[in-house]
Structure formats: structure tokens, C-alpha cells
Amino acid sequence: MTDVQPRTDAEIQQDRPGTTSTRRVVLMGAGALGATAVLAACGTDSSGSNPNGSDFADNPIPAGSTAADGSTSGGAGGTVLVAAAKVAVGGGVILDDLVVTQPTAGTYKAFSNICTHQQCKVSEVKNGSIVCRCHNSLFSINDGAPSSGPASTPLSETKVELDGDNVVTAA
Description:
Elements: H1 9-15, H2 23-42, E1 80-83, E2 92-94, E3 98-104, E4 107-112, E5 124-126, E6 129-132, E7 137-140, E8 146-148, E9 157-158, E10 160-163, E11 166-169
Antiparallel strand pairs: 1-11, 2-3, 3-4, 4-9, 5-6, 6-7, 7-8, 10-11
């Protein structure tokens, strides 16, 4: 004996007019229903308020914490740039948009990390200078002023302050 279906699915459907539910259709429908339920559970209300009646945007985040949008906030109101311990005295740290330096113990400065000569990104902080390797311009870690090379304009400064263990933008 063989286990062969003598007729095709199409022939079987012709014998039962009005019935189009095959096992495949039923399973696909169940899967779609399940996916819809999952997506609905992950959705958020577009009104901008949470169930307890307060708006998330009005809730401050703790100092050094990461907000939902990825930004960080310091307790003094500024944005956390870097942990103070990562900025060596007489040196600095190059960040996405800024160079944070510590010219003397406890004094922190921040400057644009874009060289004023031809807008190359600075590459390192070394021997008390911010270095741009594109054309060998050097800038002071104290005030961002050019000390050698073709750059003649200082790096723009962003005011910063120490907030706990972090260097933050000044409020």
C-alpha cells in the first residue's frame, strides 16, 4: 500500500466550493495575528504622556545617567563630556566634537576639535599642545591659541566645569 494522495489540492477545493481554508492559510493567519499583537504591545501612545499623568520630558535624569535620547546631563545642568579622571594634568582627551584639556590640576578647558587652518580634526594632545597632523599646527591646551604651524586662529572654546567626577558643559 502506498500513501499517495490521488487528487491534487486544487481538485479537492473544487469538490468543496466556498472553502479556501487550508492548513497553510490558517497558520499564516495565526502568525499574522500574533505579530500584530506583539507590535501593538510594543507601541507607545502618541499623546506624549505616561499613565501616571506626568510627561517624560519633564522628568530630569540623574547626573551622569543616559537619557532616552542618548544624551547625558550633569547635576549642574550641563552635558557630561568625560569623566575627570580620564583627562590627565597637562594633557587632554579628544571627543566627538571637542577636546577637553586639564592645563593645571583641577582646571578644565574644552575647545573645538577642528583645526582652524583647513578644518582637519585634531589628532592628539601631547606635551601641553593640541596637535593637528594635517599640517602640523599646534594649539595651547590653556586657551586654544595656535603656537606653531600654519594655523593662525585659535580653536573656539566651550565653557566647562567640574561636576562631581565629571567634566560638564557650563550652564
